[in-house]
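Course assignment 3, question 2. Fill in each field.
Student: A.L.
Task: Predict the tertiary structure for the chain below.
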Amino acid sequence: MLPTPSRGFYNQVRVQAEVFMSRSRRKLIYLLGFMGSGKSTVGEILSREMGWPFIDLDKTIEAGQGVSIRKIFERDGELFFRQVEHAALTEVSKNEPAIVALGGGTWVQAPNLEFIRATGGATIFLDCRLEELRRRCEGIDDRPLFSDPESFARLFHERLPYYRLAEFHVASDSAPPEEVARRILRLKIF
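Answer field:
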């Protein structure tokens, strides 16, 4: 029979694992969640607090294509958009350190999810209730994949299981963005 390891042994192993993880983790934070969850707003606050550059993937794509995301969908279709999105994601992930706000559907695409996990960056799901998301998105008409409350809810429920695959979950529906950023900083990822 093997002896039972002591509490000190477990603490030593935990500390060694934390040191290894802090050395092997790339300095990338990916914020993910549904539209209206606060990815861009919280990302900008984290950028100021941490002194890291902030990259909004959707804005990067729009700047590169010279048109809005909605226009890309209308003109070239979702397949083309997803190809451009993956290329942009690959490019922005070369920046380190960086805080990257993903588009609402970026993480749901298998090639993107696999790529992000392979980077070694931290993934943080900004978790927000559907009712609050609807309130925040009222009047927004530039989103290509929903046009009414039913399609909004359907898209949310389709994506939610993927969002829950993120490494960290932070509630973003009942606190101001500054508090959400503080919650992320308290995770002590870096």
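Instructor remarks: The helical segments are 7-24, 39-50, 57-65, 69-92, 110-119, 130-137, 149-163, 177-186. The radius of gyration is 18 Å.
Grade: pending
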